[in-house]
Amino acid sequence: MDYQYPMDMDWTTEEIVDVIHFFEAVEKAYENKIQKEELMSTYRRFKEIIPGKADEKKYTDEFQESSGYSSYLVMKKAKETESAAWISMK
User: Fold this and answer.
1) Strand partners, 46
2) Is residue 6 domain-resident?
3) What is the CATH number of the domain that holds 60?
4) InterPro entries from the entry (predicted)?
């Protein structure tokens, strides 16, 4: 990994850790696989920290620009998957 996670210096340490967990979950979906519930849990917490769509887009776009991983596509696939399946972007 040769990139940094986007973050806001106004967030608490706990919030920074939780946002990073969401981006790590997206990485898992691309690099291997992740259980849908684990991904959705990290996303729900991410949305508690970043509730606005514009801010969410800002941070996920920054992440995609630096990593090449699309949070949007991972979440779209997860939302379209009905069962408690694994999510993989491979």
Assistant:
1) none
2) no
3) 1.10.220.80
4) BH2638-like_sf (IPR023324), UPF0223 (IPR007920)
At a CB cut-off of 8 Å and minimum separation 6, what does 1 contact?
A: 27, 67
What are the structure tokens assigned to 58, written together? 């800002």
The tens digit of pLDDT for each residue in 52-84 reads 999 999 999 999 999 999 999 999 999 998 877
Residue 51's φ and ψ, nearest 5 degrees, are -75, -25
Q: How many CB atoms lie within 10 A of CB 38?
A: 14
Residues β-bridged to residue 35? 86
- Is residue 36 within 8 A of residue 85, CB to CB? The reply is yes
List the domain range (segments joined by +) for residue 25.
13-85
Q: Which two tokens stand for residue 2?
A: 């040769």
Predicted TM-score of the model (pTM): 0.94
Give the burial class of 10: count Cβ atoms within 10 A of its Cβ; 0-12 exposed, 13-18 middle, 19 or more buried.
exposed
Separation of alpha carbons 31 and 34, rounded Å: 9
